[in-house]
Amino acid sequence: MQKCKAVTYENHGAPDEVLHVSEIDLPVPGPGEALVRMHAAPINPVDLNVIEGKYPVRPTLPAIAGNEGVGIVDAVGANVTDLAADTPVLVPTEFGSWREAGVIAAEKLIPIPCDIPLEQAAMLKINPPTAWRMLHDFVTLQRGDWILQNAANSAVGRAVIQIAKISGWRTVNVVRRDELIDELQEEGADVVLLESDDLPAQIKDATEGAKIPLAFNAVGGESALRLANALAPGGTIVTYGAMGRQPLRIPNGLLIFKDLRWRGFWVTQWYRTASHEDIHSMFKHLCPLVARGNLHSKIEQFYAIDDALAAVKHAQQSRRTGKILLRLHG
Q1: How confident is the model at residue 76 (pLDDT cuts 50, 70, 90)?
Q2: Residue 276, domain member (yes or no)
Q3: Quick check: 5 and 22 in contact, CB under 8 A?
Q4: What is the Cα–Cα distance from 95 to 110, expressed in whole angstroms?
Q5: Are strands 33-42 and 323-327 parallel, antiparallel or unpaired?
Q6: Do 187 and 318 reside in the same domain of the chain?
Q7: Do 180 and 100 sit in the same domain of this protein?
Q8: What is the pTM of this model?
């Protein structure tokens, strides 16, 4: 049986202590299966949380690390009629994307057009869909509407900015560092403000008192409360992260007198419940944006699979300028 390399772990713990590069078996695809040669995979915070055992989803151990990535179909087994060799595909979360190749049920793969840069496609499964779903599933936005968000420099935050810009929606983006203001404005942000106690007043001034229907929270604590205070009555605040590690504090008055909607979103759960048609429909919208360069993620550095531990250490550094990717082909 052929072998290939993969980044594996037998126990949960600190990634630099439990991860190692191993050789795994590479079987021939059976009926309904496809052999995928991986091209690239990012190192996301969720990947590290899963390895540490701090995420709600825990794979059966031993496991192959990685939650998203892009590969090329190398061969298909019997009864696979709608997926051909040489097709670029996004792999499912449970596949374990930090590997050179693997066999997976063909129906779980998401084919993508050949005109998308594969490095960008590697980062297309988690963060852009999170932004897309939050922008489309909670509030019916009208052209010119304003959206608030904290953690605007995150991968999801940047995707929100880019998708909103081409959709005719305007964004108020909250960050913690001055040097991010010009950078996000260059990406299409309409307003970028620093986190502060008087943020609701600054938002009111920047938007000329607009009635803002929607906010995205990835921080929690006081930051989330400031967004909520800037929303219009009946507005919706969607929480999808907890970077500040502080719980939400929801004053009674915001529920009683402003009737705000407090919602949560987890893209993993969306994939679990969405239909095959809904998933493929979303990517029919997202893929052209990537192909045209309207939707893109910055990359700071590539690493070979043999250097996976160095890549993980790099990904854990703060104030990076982009994603860290494993280059898995060739």
Answers
A1: very high
A2: no
A3: yes
A4: 13
A5: antiparallel
A6: no
A7: no
A8: 0.95
How many Cβ atoms sit within 10 Å of the Cβ of residue 306? 12
Of the candidates 228, 39, 269, which has an alpha carbon nearest to the alpha carbon of residue 137? 269
**Complete DSSP assignment for 128-195:** HHHHHHHHHHS--PPTT-EEEESSTTSHHHHHHHHHHHHHT-EEEEEES-TTHHHHHHHTT-SEEEE-
Instruction: Look up residue 228 and give its amino acid.
Output: A
Residue among 208, 164, 214 at smallest CA distance from 189: 164
Name the band, by pLDDT with cuts 50, 70 and 90, for residue 279.
Answer: very high
Annotated active-site residue 55? The verdict is yes
- Tens digit of each residue's pLDDT (9 = 90 or more) over 46-59: 999 999 999 888 89
- Do 153 and 216 reside in the same domain of the chain? yes
Give the H/E segment covering residue 256. helix 252-256
Residue appearing with tokens 């922008």: 135
Q: Please check whether residues 48 and 106 belong to one and the same domain.
A: yes
The dihedral formed by the CA atoms of 175, 180, 184 and 189, expressed in degrees to the nearest 10? 40
Query: Which of 299, 295, 304 is CA-nearest to residue 324?
Result: 299
Residues 14 and 146 in one domain: no
Closest alpha carbon to 33 in 99, 122, 95, 97? 95
Strands 146-149 and 170-175: parallel
Residue 25 has a CB neighbour count (10 Å cut-off) of 10
The span from the CA of 203 to the CA of 207, in Å, is 6
Distance CA 278, CA 221 (A): 33
* Burial of 160 from C-beta contacts in 10 A (0-12 / 13-18 / 19+): buried
Which range marks the domain in which residue 193 is found? 128-268
pLDDT tens track for 182-207: 999 999 999 999 999 999 999 999 99
The span from the CA of 76 to the CA of 173, in Å, is 45
Among 9, 55, 271, 303, the active-site one is: 55
